[in-house]
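Students often ask why inverse folding is considered easier than folding. One informal answer: many sequences map to the same fold, so there is more than one right answer. In these notes we will look at a single instance of the problem. The structure comes first.
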């Protein structure tokens, strides 16, 4: 693991402050959304029991919990910008020695090149102020032939199109939600190939998209 001095932007600081504040009530407040969105992601993708997984913006560790319940030996590293959210995850998953957690920014991950088989980013991409830089960093820590799995709000849905500017107004850390085409264009530009994608809608507001991409180095 690399060691480096953390440097975060104003936007990232806003995300940290907001989720430090929400941490004690986060799981309870968003229980229905968390259960539905992460269950969809779990069904969408195939998870190799031997894969080393990086869970970006892992929050309180709910997705790691779901994976570890299926395979208690899964090697998982979770990162989040909120230490308070990570503290909840540590307490929740303290019986799993194969889980490690680190407070850091997605734009400067403290890991060596080619460290993980799979990178997961669930419900956080809309907070990335520089998605191109984030994808470059995720690509750096991904092993050759590794994959990235992204779950996020989908801007194709008319309700989210209407709410997008409102989210910017009420949440100073929020950046934007992407349409499926926009997200896949970003991923292609970063050197990834889309393996599969899907959408799901639940309740009046939420439509989400999941995209699974692969990265193959040029020989």
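Output (designed amino acids):
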């Amino acid at each position: 693991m690399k060691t480096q001095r953390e440097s975060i932007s104003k936007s990232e600081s806003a995300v940290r402050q907001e989720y430090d504040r929400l941490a004690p009530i986060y799981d309870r407040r968003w229980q229905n959304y968390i259960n539905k969105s992460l269950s969809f992601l779990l069904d969408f993708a195939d998870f190799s029991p031997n894969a080393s997984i990086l869970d970006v913006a892992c929050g309180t560790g709910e997705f790691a919990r779901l994976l570890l319940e299926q395979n208690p030996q899964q090697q998982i590293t979770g990162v989040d910008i909120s230490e308070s959210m990570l503290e909840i995850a540590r307490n929740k998953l303290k019986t799993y020695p194969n889980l490690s957690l680190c407070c850091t920014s997605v734009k400067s991950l403290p890991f060596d090149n080619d460290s993980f088989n799979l990178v997961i980013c669930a419900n956080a991409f809309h907070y990335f102020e520089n998605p191109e830089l984030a994808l470059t960093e995720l690509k750096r820590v991904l092993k050759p032939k590794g994959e990235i799995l992204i779950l996020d709000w989908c801007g194709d849905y008319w309700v989210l199109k209407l709410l997008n500017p409102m989210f910017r107004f009420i949440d100073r850390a929020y950046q934007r939600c992407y349409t499926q085409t926009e997200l896949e264009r970003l991923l292609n530009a970063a050197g990834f190939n889309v393996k599969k994608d899907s959408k799901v809608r639940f309740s009046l507001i939420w439509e989400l998209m999941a995209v699974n991409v692969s990265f193959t180095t040029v020989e």
